[in-house]
Amino acid sequence: MELTNKVIAVTGGARGLGYAMALRLGKQGAHIALLDMNPEALDQAVSQLSAEGIDAQAFVVNVAEEASVTQAFADIAQRMGPISGCVNNAGITQDALLVKAKEGQVEKRMSLEAWQNVINVNLTGVFVCGREAATQMIEAGHEGVIVNISSISRAGNMGQSNYAAAKAGVHALTVTWSQELARYGIRTGTVAPGFVATEMTAAMRPDMLERISSSVPLKRLGEPDNIAQSVAFILENDYFTGRVIECDGGLRL
């Protein structure tokens, strides 16, 4: 898909990976609909993108709430026109071991609230946004692409039962939708990042950061734009659908 003048929605787009995706896609000529929960961060991101000559507009949304998503996508269509691309990037973590025991006694367990919070944002949010995106593309009568952001943790990761399950489910949605939506000219794809240099990793202790970096075959963290490049490839390559790009520096071989 040629990106010039196409409306691309990016969830979790106000900072981090989402902002990097918006920046790259915008520089390639796309009109960017930034979706995020934080109005102040959204305004700042739009201002920064505008300074780069990118057409971007802000939409406040909670992807875990169906009504909020439905309204946001309706607002995008009204203000910018129907979308041609949707990048489901919004996500959270609430890490905990399933159970933590000492001397045969369980002291802590992952709470149901922590489980549901992550599933609601990272999996249900992808479902609702993907459904709204597909609906809009079909009713507009044009081709489209849905890109879901997973993680190398989709293979399982200690302390992340909720996150790993959600990210595995995200790619299952990608595969399922590729089969269901191809008849309408809609393609899908997943990007599974490894460790990436973001605000979150920058806040880690230097020794922890070094340990993480040394575990990667390329011996460094990825840059947000590396993930954005993968997203752009899926959007632009008209014969790519239902597959995953693992952009992790070779960590999960």
UniProtKB/TrEMBL annotation:
Enzyme Commission number, as recorded: 1.1.1.100
SMART domains, A to Z: PKS_KR (SM00822)
EC category: oxidoreductase
Family designation: Belongs to the short-chain dehydrogenases/reductases (SDR) family.
A molecular function (GO) term: 3-oxoacyl-[acyl-carrier-protein] reductase (NADPH) activity
The keyword Aminoacyl-tRNA synthetase appears for this protein: no
Keywords in alphabetical order: Oxidoreductase
Pfam families associated with the record: adh_short
InterPro entries, per the entry: KR_dom, NAD(P)-bd_dom_sf, Sc_DH/Rdtase_CS, SDR_fam
Name of this chain's protein: 3-oxoacyl-ACP reductase
GO biological process annotation, one example: fatty acid elongation
Organism: Vreelandella boliviensis LC1
Domain of life: Bacteria
Coiled coil location: none
Annotated Ketoreductase domain residues: 6-198
Keyword Repressor appears in the UniProt entry: no
Gene3D superfamilies in alphabetical order: NAD(P)-binding Rossmann-like Domain (3.40.50.720)
